[in-house]
Amino acid sequence: MSISVFGHSNPDTDSVAAAISFANLLKAEGQDAVACMQSSAAKLNPESTVVLEKFGLTAPEEITDAAGKQVALVDFSDIGQAPAGITEAEIVAVVDHHKIGDITTNNPILFNAQPVGCTCTVLNEMYKMRGIEIPKDIAGAMLSAILSDTVNFKSPTCTDADKAAVADLKVIAGVDDTDALFMDMLKAKSAVDGVPSKDLLFRDYKDFDMKGNKIGVGQLELATLDQVAAIRDDLYKAMEEVKADGRHSVLLMLTDVVKEGTDLVVVSDDASIIEGAFGAKLDGNSMWIDGMMSRKKQTVPNLQKAFGC
Ligand code: MG
Ligand code: MG
Ligand code: MG
Q1: Residue 187 binned pLDDT confidence (cut-offs 50, 70, 90)
Q2: 1 Cα: distance to centroid of ligand 1 (angstroms)
């Protein structure tokens, strides 16, 4: 029976690249393995699509039910992120970089989970230790996955091992400029063309209660603010509509991942509170805040302080 290798549901680039990479490693060791991915509404996400095209790889086979199959998991070990039938599958291996989840097995298995930024960093080490060469196209996908998971080394999850793996893999893949590769991926991920403004506002959006005031905060991660230059007025109108629905303020973080800062667009009953929260002044309806990347760790705590929470 061939081993179905797959990553978590709603697959990201690491789940796709790691499935391809680990299936190849198993095959190189004489096992029968096939790279799979769980189907999602969007199928392959735009970033993964760009990566597979760039390196000439085909998308893994879709798997919807694992019952009765031999399976290897990459980039997860939670039943909740697995396909149907996982409890009736025979799990033969796990390669991961998350906290250990709730899967169990009846037999001893290969289980390699490390506290690094990406599953493909773990896989790179496995290839090296076994003396197996990584094919050029697969190295390109693994390299992309590490850049994606670590946000081009800027995520607090990034380790020296991830940087070392990128240094190995870029040589094998023949990629000179990993920043340019990351930018291409980011542009695909943050494409806004043809998406209605309200959908963009709600793509990554949360409401908060601050001393009885309802405050909405959305975020768009962008390669450059130019990506939204033509739709700023439409975004602002969408924010006004959402604010009119009983909110004190609606903020939209237009985060420039490259410049590492956010242009914060503000619609508010009292913009001076928002300005005070960030020690900045609105220029028109937005203000640039250097270093602001995280809603959870930066934007919301400052707002809560300003509202006296
Ligand atoms: Mg993942
Ligand atoms: Mg990952
Ligand atoms: Mg990820």
Answers
A1: confident
A2: 27
Distance from Cα 15 to the centre of ligand 1, integer Å:
5
How far is Cα 262 from Cα 221, in angstroms, rounded to an integer? 9
> Is beta strand 205-210 parallel, antiparallel or unpaired with respect to 110-113?
unpaired
Q: Bridge partners of 72? A: 5, 93
Give the chain's domains with CATH numbers.
3-187 (3.90.1640.10), 197-306 (3.10.310.20)
> pLDDT tens digit string along 167-180?
999 999 999 999 99
Cα(193) to centroid(ligand 1), Å: 25
Q: Using the mean position of ligand 2's atoms as its centre, give its distance from the Cα of residue 36 in Å.
A: 16
pTM, two decimals, is 0.76
Residues with CB under 5 A from ligand 3 (ion): 12, 149
User: What is the CA(118)–ligand 2 centre distance, in A?
Assistant: 5
Burial 143-176 (b: 16+ CB within 10 A, else e): bbbbbbbbbbbeeeebbebbeebbebbbebbebe
The string of pLDDT tens digits covering residues 58-79 is 999 999 999 999 999 999 998 9
